[in-house]
Design a protein that fits this description.
globular; binds 1,4-dihydronicotinamide adenine dinucleotide; 19 strands; eight-stranded mixed beta sheet; 660 residues
């Protein structure tokens, strides 16, 4: 039985039991409808408590039902009936009340929650808006600006915020079921509250602030449809009678459900959750980790150390000498100071995190670490020396990881006395912020070590993706491929600012050439010079990047790169660069062709997809979904487009439909 009804004196308790997260599946909806009929007919029940078993309240619709034809009873109809019950209903909320879960709570006459509960309407993150009355009812309960923020940004509120804005009646100080029953008893002795759908919306207190917040959400949405539709829905709730607002919400919800953006976002939702469902690790228990060692305290080492500290690990950093150790310590402190200034951590937490950190110039300091992550210079000899030191000083059962971007992780592992305990943990910069963590699977890595890497990533609240050993793993390898293609386009007819405009119009956060200027052109120039002798002479090589460096144009830091940078740091197209590019095309005898933004993006996408397919064929990535997750979380590929491999599948589907 997914919904049970019991009675405690004069109070009926309706309990949903649909593990793991009490999704409002068809069985739950039917169960609730039956429970409503039963409690309405029960003359001894004076009020009803709606509660959930397990770890949470209802967290929303059953996303697995999304692709299928809807089955009765529909949630909006069910909730409309509960709202008109002849006796009070009290929602007893623990865990999360999200989406359809919060909508169910909104049709109850009273709401009580545990202090740790969160309440939200996150549908926009799936390209949707709430579809069971949430947008029409919430602005009739809480101030308009709060309703707007919850509905159009999808950000949940804590129980204490919920109490402050009037979303819940009380926070349970002790036992939730007991206090919910007590609240129901009080509610039964009072006049029945008017259902939200029969009330007027609350008056907008500060119209200008509301408009400013709405404009900000719309601007941030860019090409995304759902946040704009959400803003419209809140306006409807404020301007229309409730039944008209409810009808408009339903129509907008159904339109969004069929929108390709929502399909793409739902694909990403599942893909991100599936990266850790790894067949070979199914029955493997990860090791317990408490102390982390980080070798190298530069950009990455400091970011990794901060990420670990912020997730509750104690961290020891080892640098080359005491001066470098204190510089590394300074960088870690800077990151934590930033978190403090942005209000992400309290002053006392800041102090306790720093107390859990220690920087040293000797490997002895690593004798007790459970996991050591190396982030020293990108040089094989330096890395091997570090692993030799780890062999000598770290515990024989500790996990060893390298953060290398391009070096052969198998070669690094094989230089260690215990290759089975070595993996790659490839973070992205800034390491304490970027969500992606590529777990590089070496030939000898044991399942236990791999499972530990995956669990470690999760503990840092990152998205782990398994990657095989190759030049650049998944993310950097695909980026190199489309960067090569973009460079070829410069010779074929495009200019850097045209390529960049095509990419940002597509929804990427930054164009490739601006990104390279930001990173500095000299580092990749040095790398290309190193690789010159071994480069495949048949592969097309574009010299423009090298020539820019020869002109002293190293990017933003020198004020000139692919662009010119004015005093404000603004990227400006530069005639000198254009002249260089035109002369390079002429030198190679290429007749430049005009390219539209669409042409440019089509070539970039194809380069991503071709490299993605090669990566799949070689077994570097487990599946196309993992590649999509990587591109979204490493390079800001627009989530609402689903990722390059998803787009490739969609194109095939469309072509298939046309052929049928
Ligand atoms: P960095 O140059 O900022 O830092 C390297 C640090 O390692 C320096 O502080 C240096 O003193 C220290 N170091 C060098 N040899 C050492 C040794 N034998 N023992 C202890 N410390 C030593 O370099 P960054 O950018 O932090 O990169 C580090 C590693 O992370 C490289 O392998 C790089 O490829 C990789 N990586 C870099 C990313 C980035 O965006 N910068 C992204 C992902 C990976």
């Amino acid at each position: 039985m997914v919904v049970r009804v019991s009675r405690h004196g004069s109070i009926a308790v309706v309990t949903v039991h649909n593990p793991p997260v009490n999704a409002a599946s068809q069985a739950v909806r039917q169960g609730l409808l039956d429970a409503l009929e039963r409690t309405e007919a029960d003359a001894y029940a004076k009020a009803v408590v709606l509660a959930c078993a397990g770890r949470t309240f209802i967290v929303g619709a059953d996303v697995r039902e999304f692709g299928k034809p809807p089955v009765k009873p529909h949630l909006p109809d069910l909730l409309a009936r509960i709202e008109c019950a002849s006796k009070p209903w009290v929602a007893a909320i623990h865990g999360s009340a999200l989406g359809g879960g919060l909508e169910a709570a909104l049709v109850c006459s009273h709401r009580i929650a545990t202090a740790s509960a969160i309440l939200g309407l996150p549908e926009v993150s799936l390209g949707l808006i709430p579809g069971a009355g949430g947008t029409a009812r919430l602005p009739r309960l809480v101030p308009a600006d709060k309703a707007l923020a919850m509905i159009a940004t999808g950000k949940p509120v804590t129980a204490s915020e919920a109490e402050k804005i009037g979303l819940i009646d009380a926070i349970a100080e002790g036992d939730l079921p007991e206090e919910a029953i007590a609240l129901a008893q009080r509610a039964a002795s009072e006049p029945l509250r008017t259902p939200l759908a029969q009330r007027a919306p609350l008056k907008v207190e500060d119209g200008a602030a509301f408009e400013a917040a709405a404009a900000k959400i719309e601007a941030k949405a860019g090409q995304q449809h759902a946040p704009r539709v959400a803003v419209r829905a809140v306006r409807n709730a404020l301007e229309l009678p409730a039944d008209a607002a409810l009808a408009a919400e339903r129509k907008a919800f159904l339109a969004l459900k069929a929108d390709p953006q929502s399909r793409a976002l739902r694909h990403v939702f599942f893909a991100e959750r599936a990266t850790t469902r790894i067949e070979r690790l199914k029955t493997v228990r990860p090791r317990f980790l408490r102390e982390v060692g980080v070798i190298g305290g530069g950009t990455m080492g400091a970011g990794i150390a901060a990420a670990c500290l912020l997730s509750g690990y104690s961290v020891t950093m080892v640098e080359r000498d005491s001066e470098a150790a204190s510089a590394g310590e300074g960088r870690v402190k800077n990151v934590l100071d930033g978190s403090l200034q942005r209000g992400l951590i309290s002053a006392s937490r800041h102090a306790s995190l720093l107390a859990g950190f220690n920087a040293s110039d000797g490997y002895d300091a690593l004798s007790s670490v459970d996991l050591a992550i190396e982030a020293v210079f990108e040089n094989m000899d330096v890395k091997k020396e570090v692993f030799a030191n780890l062999d000598a000083h770290a515990r024989p059962d500790s996990v060893l990881a390298t953060n290398t971007s391009y070096l052969d992780v198998n070669e690094i592992a094989n230089s260690s006395a215990r290759p089975d305990r070595v993996i790659g943990l490839h973070f992205f910069s800034p390491a304490h912020i970027m969500k992606l963590l590529e777990i590089v699977v070496t030939d000898a890595a044991s399942n236990e070590i791999l499972a530990t890497g995956v669990a470690f990533a999760k503990s840092l609240k990152k998205v782990p993706v398994l990657a095989g050993v190759c030049d650049g793993f998944i993310a950097n390898r695909i980026m190199s491929a489309y960067r090569r293609e973009a460079e070829c386009m410069l010779e074929d007819g495009a200019l850097p600012w045209e390529v960049d405009a095509a990419m940002t119009e597509f929804g990427l956060p930054m164009g490739l050439f601006q990104m390279q200027d930001l990173a500095g052109l000299d580092i990749s120039w040095a790398m290309r010079k190193q690789q010159a002798a071994t480069r495949d002479p048949d592969q097309r090589y574009v010299d423009i990047g090298d020539k820019l460096c020869e002109m002293g144009r190293f990017g933003r830091k020198t004020g000139r790169g692919y662009y010119l940078y004015g005093a404000t740091g603004h990227a400006i197209p530069d005639p000198e660069v254009e002249a260089l590019i035109l002369s390079e095309s002429a030198r190679k005898g290429i007749v430049r062709q005009r390219m539209t933004r669409g042409d440019i993006m089509a070539r970039i996408l194809e380069a991503m997809q071709t490299e993605g397919s090669a990566i799949l064929d070689e077994g570097i990535a487990r599946c196309g979904d993992d590649i999509d997750v990587v591109m979204i979380n490493a390079y800001g590929f627009p989530r609402w487009k689903g990722g390059p491999m998803f787009m490739k599948g969609q194109r095939r589907e469309l072509q298939g439909e046309r052929h049928e």
